[in-house]
Design brief:
heterodimer; A: alpha+beta; Uridine Diphospho-n-acetylenolpyruvylglucosamine Reductase, domain 2; Enolase-like, domain 1; 5-stranded antiparallel beta sheet; 4-stranded antiparallel beta sheet; 12 helices; B: alpha+beta; Aldehyde Oxidoreductase, domain 4; FAD-bd_PCMH_sub1 (chain A)
């Protein structure tokens, strides 16, 4: 393990200044992914700037009635927050579906968005990986890829994004705020993760050295009737093999608004806009749900071992929306 | 209520004698012992799966901060590897740096020693090793043309005319099963410290047999056995993986060359790479039966892999030789040599994967016959060993099924598949038989009557976390007829003399024979001494070799019945176990508290084997992909439902202690019971472990396509 400098930042401008011009430095949040990657040799920072003491630990209602979630809010705090649970229940459920109690107590919202794929080729430095070592190749395509991407991937990388939280945030049109030495900025979560293409090592739209300061959820009536379900091969403490966040608003027997996002199918939380389009204005019933799922999954490209994700995601969408529709009826 | 007079010893629940030390942190594990002037070693493991080490760039690394030495095949001292230990020939990886060949991924190619573990690791990771790489083959599957029958006493056993009996059978089940590569995954990673002290080699280790490790280290380094002392006080799980491994050899090599204490503590990834594993298996079972369920033919063939260095046989086909009568039996093992590490014993070696195949096949046969699976087993209960013809020392498999069926509510079961649903979950129940040999091996022990009225037992036993130290305290107290708190049991020290290892479900039985026999002899001598005990105490010492030689040749085994209830969501492929029950006939239970824990632990492992555990080999590199607990899944707490394990009386009339082994049997049959329950829940028979969601989903799609 490489020796590194540890510094604790106490204000935002100081934090970004510490990272400025040092591409080998990293911000340290809960460390639940970064420290593992350092042990594995995937990350070898020369400096860690601990941001947990920054004044970014609050969840506040915005003027327009949305929520602004500070970047250092822990996953546990986010899932327990009464406004999150009331207005964005799928978000609280998604967070609680991830990791373990101990990890959620440490993991931060900003760090969660920036966590890296758990693709085993990426985390083993003895193996090729275009994401870790650009141009070295992607052995997953012909090797082990049971839990790899079926949407938005390329021959250069088929890794999936591991976040549960991000799936719910994608469904709810979250916006990421950040700070740099040049000033602040915002980027919609829909644009936050870059397309894979032939540059899988370029993962986000954040400028170099940027510090995530907050994630803002715009107000959305539909979000209050939402649900997250995660499928995994063991009951706890495993990454999804497929997950979905769904929100449904039915008026006069028709779908007025629907939100759908998928996890564990792509290099980013996958907003299922095509499915939403197909479903909007239709009666909320099984056939329409299945048609919507199929419309979204029409773009899927499966490999030898991950074709099961097609029926899995289709079944998951139908089950989640059926549950939400039945609850609307009551 | 009757109260038994006398000390509360064998058969009474006792918490672990060292339990308080363990939960308060006072118990020190191998890597926690402080040493002055300690240096730290780090192994460099091969990144290729086959070839030769061409060059090791150690010059640059020697200049790194804190680095004391770099060992590799170009400079390492010679070892003596041509010997046979109490457990057979040495593991090939013990020939540390003795040649430049790389026979598999993870083969140790260099050792870096430095002042701190961080410096050693950084230098080890910076070390450039150049290889001449050769094409490798790690593809294990049935139907390979290059399999062979190993030269192993257990390789093949037959009786009767198998093909004729199959032809005469009204019903034949012919099915193939696979189990994946699995790893021991002990909580405590392997760790060792070696040092020379006053002309003796001292090794602080975590292992299953201090004498075993001491004996092999003495051989490897050509030392007088009496000059090697290995201690292993507390062990955080072993399961077959904590024998003699390259890290102990590395520590002794470095401590000898540098003349200072050297410690190696393996990372989790290293434990996956160099401490052994269970071979994947491909098995075929053919059962032929009359309409009344009587077996005419039982065939079980099992293929497993080994390295190119040494045959190791996963004896998956042996359990049918004990479990079921049949006119014709054929049980056989085959091997294939691959560019893989040498597999080793892992909890219930043979019986764990073998029972998945055989006990699934029995369930398939019961389905085909329209017969209750417990009744089918009752029809085929042997009176003597089906192949050996020897009597059983005791056998109550059917008693286990009777008691289990009663407590599980088996009689209320609707045998039709897909007959129970609860929301999105299909529910089902299944059962399977369990058995494991109950052997014993010669051991020595001493018992000392101290002048203060207490007793000290010394035996080179190992408490791998099972409660062996406590069990032996109870055994000694019983034999001495004193309360357990007057007995101190000292174990895990090779200076205490030869004793069997914690392995093969033979530890407690072997050690109990030695301890009780020494205690009996001591009582005789105390009677002669007439209560007059000198300051150094009075010690009796025994060796059980003679005692065991006199034991009549019999089929000696533990038996059990496993029951499981599962819930399956066929739309997502999720399987969750709802409850498990295991009833065991396992001789006299020394400590019901820890025995229950051990059996429940085995059953949880069976659950984990059924649903989760699978090591994945990367075909391109030949290495294990994701050698960590993020990728190699074992059951999490949330996967473990209500699990009950209990015993029925199982007296062994001709046995001096009546103790059988319980270390392995808890896992045997557990995966089959779960898979049989999944078949009951869904109507789909799964023959490949683990029962992954993608497999459940694919089976459901295929079934839908067939019916649609």
């Amino acid at each position: 393990m490489r020796e590194f400098v540890y510094q604790r930042a106490t204000d935002i401008s100081g934090a970004v200044a510490l990272l400025d011009g040092d591409p080998q430095a990293r911000f340290l949040g809960g460390g639940t992914n970064l420290v593992d990657l350092m042990k594995a040799g995937v990350e070898r920072p020369d400096r860690l700037v601990d941001v947990r003491e920054l004044p970014l630990g609050r969840i506040e209602t915005t003027q327009d009635g949305g929520l602004r979630i500070g970047a250092t809010v822990t996953n546990s705090e986010l899932a327990a927050h009464p406004e999150v649970r009331r207005r964005y229940p799928a978000l609280a459920q998604a967070v609680l579906a991830g990791a373990s109690g101990q990890l959620r107590n440490m993991a931060t919202v900003g760090g969660n968005l920036l966590q890296r794929t758990r693709c085993a080729y990426f985390t083993d430095t003895s193996l090729p990986c275009n994401k870790r070592s650009p141009g070295s190749g992607c052995p997953a395509v012909t090797g082990e890829h049971h839990n790899h991407a079926i949407l938005g991937a390329s021959e250069h990388c088929v890794a999936v994004h591991p976040s549960d939280m991000g799936v719910a945030l994608a469904a709810f049109d979250a916006v990421v705020s950040y700070e740099t030495t040049e000033g602040g900025g915002e980027v919609a979560l829909a644009d936050f993760y870059l397309p894979v293409g032939d540059t899988p090592h370029l993962e986000t739209a954040l400028p170099p050295g940027a510090l995530i300061t907050a994630v803002t959820l715009p107000p959305a009536q539909v979000a209050s009737h939402s649900r997250y379900r995660k499928v995994r091969e063991r009951a706890s403490y495993a990454f999804a093999i497929g997950s979905a966040a769904a929100a449904l608003d039915v008026a006069d027997g028709m779908v007025r608004e629907v939100r759908l996002a998928f996890g564990a199918v792509a290099s980013r939380p996958w907003r299922a806009r095509e499915a939403e389009r197909v479903l909007t204005g239709r009666p909320p019933e099984g056939a329409a749900f299945a048609e919507a799922a199929d419309a979204e999954l029409a773009a899927a490209r499966v490999l030898d071992q991950n074709a099961y994700k097609l029926p899995l995601m289709r079944n998951l969408v139908v089950a989640l929306l059926t549950e939400l529709a039945e609850e609307t009826d009551r | 209520m009757t109260t038994t007079a006398g000390p509360r010893t064998v058969g009474v629940a006792h918490t672990r004698v060292e339990g308080r030390d363990k939960v308060t942190g006072a118990a020190r594990y191998a890597s926690e012992q402080p040493f002055d002037h300690l240096a730290h070693g780090w192994l460099v493991l091969s990144a290729i799966a086959r070839g030769r080490v061409r060059a090791v760039g150690d010059a640059a690394v020697r200049a790194m901060p804190g680095v004391l030495a770099v060992f590799h095949s170009g400079n390492a001292p010679r070892l003596m590897t041509d010997y046979t230990s109490i457990l057979g020939p040495p593991d090939p990886t013990l020939a540390l740096f003795q040649h430049d060949r790389v026979p598999h991924q993870g083969w140790p190619v260099a050792l870096v020693v430095a002042e701190t573990p961080e410096q050693a690791r950084e230098a080890a990771e910076a070390l450039v090793v150049e290889y001449d790489e050769e094409p490798h083959d790690v593809a294990f599957h049935a139907g390979r043309p290059d399999t062979y029958i190993p030269e192993d006493a257990n390789a093949v056993a037959s009786k009767g005319d198998l093909e004729a009996e199959l032809a005469a059978s009204a019903v034949v089940v012919d099915a193939s099963y696979t189990t994946p590569e699995e790893h021991h995954s002990a909580m405590e990673p392997h760790a060792v410290t070696a040092r020379w002290d006053g002309g003796r080699l001292e090794v602080i280790d975590t292992n299953q047999g201090a004498m075993w490790v001491a004996g092999e280290l003495a051989q490897l380094f050509s030392l007088d056995p009496s000059s090697v002392r290995v201690r292993s006080e507390h062990i955080g799980g072993a399961f077959g993986s904590k024998g003699v491994r390259p890290h102990q050899v590395a520590a002794v090599m470095a401590a000898t060359e540098l003349q200072r204490p050297v410690r190696l503590a393996l990372t989790r990834r290293q434990t996956f790479a160099i401490t052994g594993y269970r071979s994947p298996t491909a098995q075929r079972v053919r059962l032929g039966a009359d309409p009344d369920g009587r077996l005419r033919a039982l065939e079980h063939e099992a293929l497993s892999l080994t390295s190119t260095l040494r045959p190791f046989v996963e004896t998956s086909a042996v359990l049918g030789r004990v479990l079921y009568d049949a006119r014709a039996h054929h049980t056989a093992h085959r091997l294939v040599d691959l560019d893989m590490p040498t597999p080793t014993w892992m909890r219930a070696p043979g019986e764990a994967p073998g029972s998945f195949a055989l006990e699934s096949a029995l369930d398939e046969l019961a389905d085909r016959l329209g017969m209750d699976p417990i009744e089918l087993r009752a029809r085929n209960e042997p009176t003597v060993g089906p192949l050996s013809g020897l009597p059983f020392s005791s056998r109550d498999l059917l008693g286990c099924f009777r008691e289990g069926a009663r407590r599980f509510g088996w009689a209320e079961r609707d045998p039709r598949p897909r007959s129970r649903r609860e929301g999105r979950w299909l529910l089902g129940t299944g059962t399977a038989a369990a058995t494991y040999p109950s052997g014993a091996a010669p051991s020595t022990a001493s018992v000392t009557a101290e002048a203060d009225g207490t007793f000290t037992v010394r035996i080179t036993a190992a408490d791998v976390g099972t409660g062996a130290r406590t069990a032996l305290t109870l055994i000694a107290a019983e034999a001495l007829d004193v309360e357990p708190d007057r007995v101190t049991v000292r174990i895990g020290d090779s200076d205490f003399g030869p004793a069997w290892v914690a392995g093969g479900s033979m530890g407690t039985r072997s050690w109990s024979l030695a301890v009780s026999s020494a205690a009996r002899e001591l009582r005789g001598r105390l009677a002669l001494a007439d209560g007059d005990i000198p300051p150094e105490g009075i010690t009796a010492r025994t060796d059980t070799a003679g005692l065991l030689a006199e034991l009549a040749k019999k089929e000696r085994h533990s038996f059990g019945a496993q029951f499981a209830e599962v819930a399956v969501d066929v739309t997502t492929g999720e399987i969750r176990v709802r409850r498990m029950l295991g009833i065991f006939a396992a001789g006299r239970i020394v400590n019901p508290l820890t025995a229950r824990s051990q059996l429940v632990g085995g059953m949880i492992w069976g659950l984990s084997m059924a649903l989760h555990e699978e090591a994945v080999r990367d075909p391109a590199s030949g290495g294990q992909l994701g050698a960590d607990f993020a990728n190699y899944h074992v059951a999490a707490h949330a996967d473990v439902p209500a699990i009950e394990a209990d015993f029925i009386d199982d007296p062994v009339p001709d046995d001096p202690v009546g103790v059988k082994g319980i270390g392995e049997i808890g896992i045997v049959g557990a995966a089959a019971a779960i898979s049989n329950a999944v078949r009951h829940a869904t109507g789909v028979r799964h023959r490949d472990l683990p029962l992954r969601p993608d497999r459940v989903l694919r089976a459901e799609e295929e079934a839908a396509a067939q019916h649609g």
